[in-house]
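<instruction>
Derive structure tokens from the sequence
<data>
Labelled lines for chain and fold
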Amino acid sequence: MFSISQENVPADSLLKTFRNASRPERWGHQGDCFSVTINRPVSLAEFVREFYSSPVFRIERFLLRFLAGSPSTDAQVRGVADGTGDSLAVWRVGARTETQLLMCDRFERTRSWFRVIPLGPNETRLQFGSAVASRRHLETGTLVMGDGFRLLMRFHVLYSQILLNAARRRLLRAR
């Protein structure tokens, strides 16, 4: 869909390597990665700003204001994108590098990850992924995804692709 591919989460992504949480063993087991290549240079700040400012994500921001009591502003989007802010709606910045940003929700149940990979002077690979905290299965003791998250997985995959495509389209228009 939209020339977006689903890939394995890269081993060096903050989505896999960042374990700063109250129960770090719950992370690194459930995650996804979607990517698309765009024919222009794109900074991490640009990618994050266009992602969180897209009309699709504005709907999520609106819903979070009323359903979770977590409003967000365009100034917060700019701050998180450029590294001067550390929170947006229900998320806080967990970790940041020059090419990656990890956002952690305040409940420590989900994470969102962004990455830009320069492929040349006029080409950038955009990656977006999410992770869900695992829980211990009562009978087996293994780490598994919760039932609620498992039920929403088809919607999540489609929604992630729509969000990444919306950011891609905004970046192409901003040329």
